[in-house]
Amino acid sequence: MAEKELQPRKKEAVATETELTRPGRVFLPAVDIYENPEALVLLADMPGVASDKVMINLKDDRLTITGEVSPPMRGGEQLLVQEYETGNYMREFSLGQIIDQNRIEATMKNGVLRLVLPKVEKAKPRKIEVKVG
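^ thats the sequence. predicted structure below, dont judge the formating
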């Protein structure tokens, strides 16, 4: 069996449908989504975003993630070469009825946002015992 070779994906700026209050590019954060019997787990790569600069909004079953990146240069520094593009992040997801929206949890560590989207009780798999009758 041939091994599957991973190809790096180029970071691309996207056009947004909403009005932005800050100038600059907006990138889609790459995400992985996992499922277990209890929840969906979403991991979003948002390098350069501090935990206090992540905003998560939920309205009308739409989950919006935004992350603000501060300029990498400090006072007195001047940009000489730039190979890494910076910009803010934004991505939106439509949530289904299987997600318990009141129990969503988020953590941010080392530029990775982790969202745990718990399932409602009726969406969790359960084993039905067969009684001997």
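The CA atoms of residues 30 and 45 lie 6 Å apart.
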